[in-house]
């Protein structure tokens, strides 16, 4: 019962329910969706937390031996089972041969990052020489901005979205201060229209058209951490470059979540972390992209030993032979234990493919949306019924797997009660709870269980009121 490419998730759910002769909210629909899911076996590649191991759990409300409902991959992805094996390989090598490990094995420490960088190509849609795996996201953002943000008296602004992730906001502020610029004048923030949560693409393009001559760099999230909005990166890139701006993206919440085509879109630069959808573990090795058109035009403002070409790096003559392109931005040797955890995850992505993952993700999140709307659409006849609003865009083209929910009752109480019942998600100020069913390891039955628990929590809230 493979959905057609143009079929909306709600239509797939209803069609499957009709074939099963049951209501779309019936558990049989979730079980059938899982049965027909060609990616379902990838769940076995990950450790799924058990109810009994979660700190906030109330064991009187759950079966302690059941898997938790883990909808927090947008903050920290689950651990691939091969991580431990790969790390132990390097620890064993270190124990047995010490410094010889720099040059020997399937991950020689000197080139550990370069060994796995090819596995990122299809995830971000770039050539291998346009990608570097290094540092942490904000460090990479600073390194890139130091090279791409060269303000002039006429072109001195950085354009970003409202409520950008704090790291991006702080990085931009500090870059402006570094150049002695007035933050209020140089930091151009686009806000949604009054009463709206989501930025309209036409408003973004209008600002670029009107003010582009004074904008040096456009830096947007690929996907907004709070609202879950997926920005139209190709349109923003095209509009910005037409006005002479450099265009870059923070892909923290987009990489491994949606399909990216950085090279084909002509994006100037980008950076991302790897511990969310890429499952590399807390503080995992981050990534950076610089388009090949800048290979011989843009150079790092700060250089280190690992930006020096490998063929002469160990001559140690202090005569810099800078590696062209983004590899020249590398500062230091790769942290091999972080390389190991990222390697384990990227191998899974290579098997699954982003195209197939995105196809499942659209249906998985669409199923979640369908059930929420079924149970919690506004009912004028029942004014006491708790309301759940989805602020994430409803068009599948405008979102990834995350839905951000707001409630007519206390967000804090809802969140705490979900935690007690083994739902792992998070809350974000001012009033959102983010839930992210990840196609690599979440199932349709996870979504069904989540909705049942949400119903239980909100029913008890209604009863108390």
From TrEMBL:
Report the EC number(s), separated by commas if there are several.
3.7.1.3
- The answer to whether the entry has keyword Acetylation is yes
Q: Which GO terms describe its molecular function?
A: kynureninase activity; protein homodimerization activity; pyridoxal phosphate binding
Return the similarity comment. Answer: Belongs to the kynureninase family.
Keywords from UniProt, A to Z, are: Acetylation, Cytoplasm, Hydrolase, Pyridine nucleotide biosynthesis, Pyridoxal phosphate
Name of the molecule in the record: Kynureninase
The species this protein was found in: Prolemur simus (Greater bamboo lemur)
Cytoplasm among keywords: yes
């Amino acid at each position: 019962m493979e959905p057609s490419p143009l079929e909306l998730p709600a239509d797939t759910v209803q069609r499957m329910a009709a074939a099963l002769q049951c209501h779309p909210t019936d558990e049989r629909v979730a079980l059938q969706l899982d049965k027909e899911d060609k990616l379902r076996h990838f769940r076995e590649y990950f450790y799924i937390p058990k109810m009994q191991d979660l700190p906030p759990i109330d064991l009187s409300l759950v079966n302690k031996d059941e898997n938790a409902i883990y909808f927090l991959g947008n903050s920290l992805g689950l651990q691939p089972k091969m991580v431990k094996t790969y790390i132990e390989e390097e620890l064993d090598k270190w124990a047995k041969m010490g410094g010889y490990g720099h040059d020997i094995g399937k991950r020689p420490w000197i080139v550990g990052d370069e060994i796995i960088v090819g596995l990122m190509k299809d995830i971000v849609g770039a050539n291998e020489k346009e990608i570097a795996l290094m540092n942490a996201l904000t460090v990479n953002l600073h390194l890139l901005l130091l090279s791409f943000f060269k303000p002039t008296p006429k072109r001195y602004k950085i354009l970003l979205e409202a409520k950008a992730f704090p790291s991006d906001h702080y990085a931009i502020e500090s870059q402006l201060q570094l150049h002695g610029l007035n933050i209020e004048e140089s930091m151009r923030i686009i806000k949604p229209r009054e009463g709206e949560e989501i930025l309209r693409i036409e408003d973004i393009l209008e600002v670029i058209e009107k003010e582009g001559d004074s904008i040096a760099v456009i830096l947007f999230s690929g996907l907004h951490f709070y609202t879950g909005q997926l920005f139209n990166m190709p349109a923003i890139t095209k509009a910005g470059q037409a006005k002479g701006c450099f265009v870059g993206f923070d892909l923290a919440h987009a990489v491994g979540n949606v399909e990216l085509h950085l090279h084909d879109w002509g994006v100037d630069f980008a950076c991302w972390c790897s511990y969310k959808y890429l499952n590399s573990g807390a503080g995992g090795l981050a990534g950076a992209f610089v388009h090949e058109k800048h290979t011989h035009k843009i150079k790092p403002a700060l250089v280190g030993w690992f930006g020096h070409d490998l063929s002469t790096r160990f001559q140690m003559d202090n005569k810099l032979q800078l590696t062209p392109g983004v590899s020249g931005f590398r500062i230091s040797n790769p942290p091999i234990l972080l390389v190991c955890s990222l390697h384990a995850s990227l191998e899974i992505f290579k098997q699954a493919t982003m195209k197939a993952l995105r196809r499942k993700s659209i249906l998985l999140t669409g199923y979640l949306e369908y059930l929420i709307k079924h149970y919690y659409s506004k009912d004028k006849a029942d004014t006491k019924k708790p309301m759940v609003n989805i602020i994430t865009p409803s068009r599948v083209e405008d979102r990834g797997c995350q839905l951000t929910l707001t409630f007519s009752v206390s967000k804090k109480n809802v969140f705490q009660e979900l935690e007690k019942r083994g739902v792992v998600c998070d809350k974000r100020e001012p009033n959102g709870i983010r839930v992210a069913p990840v196609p690599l390891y979440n199932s349709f039955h996870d979504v069904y269980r989540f909705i049942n628990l949400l119903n239980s929590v909100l029913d008890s809230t209604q009863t108390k009121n």
